[in-house]
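BUG: 3D viewer hangs when loading the predicted structure for this chain

Environment: internal workstation, default settings.
Expected: structure renders.
Actual: progress bar stalls at 90%.

Input used:
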Amino acid sequence: MFSGALSLPRHAFSPRETARAGDLWRACQEVAVMASSAAGWPPSRYRDEGNAFVVRSMTVVHHRETVYGEALVGRSWVSRFRREMLSTRQVRIDGEDGAPVVVATQEWAHVSAALVPSRAPASLTGAFPAEPGDGAEAGLPSPAEPSGGASWQIALPIWQLWADPLGHVNHPVYVDFCDEALSRSLRARGELPARLVPVAEEVHFRGGVEPGEVVTVQTAPRGWTALGDAVFAHRILVGERLAATATTVRRLAGETGRSSLFAP
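Structure tokens produced before the viewer hung:
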């Protein structure tokens, strides 16, 4: 199991001085890269050997919010490696007291330099033996009280500067897409978007999004959890092509009981 000190950059924080969900996903990615590098597989080695991992799905649960300057600890380990192709990685971001801030489960697929699914070499699989860790995977809460509120959609052009080392939009940006849709809805209602508090989210990736394309984010409320947090379903499309599906669980800062994020 890898463990290392972690700090979040200033630009990860909203006007409410708390970290955004997408930037916490970026922190999870950083912890995964740190763990891979510590095992002898830094990004340069993947590039030199002509292979990579891409995210198939990711589930994140936020135990609490974090502020700039807080000392954090990142932990990560591989809990499953199947058919030399599919890897499940657990990521934890904890406070100095050891209590969790973020718990994440990532599903990765091994691909060639051409992004074609392929079997990983023994040198790679041997570097990441499956470990039980804390035995817990991130799980998404389900709506306990369904609702069929009004849905909406937004369109977002993809900047050329958003290309990651594999030439497409990095996976945390999909969470930004979803939260931008919710933030615009809040702004239209006269609410401050910075009040949005991440509780949990899950994204299933179907295909890449590249610079120059335009994504459509379709958002529909699905109800409230047993704790009153609002649940939303999202579809991210490029034209008619489905790039990802996502579920976000959110509330507003200062709320108690059932969230007012959408009207039933």
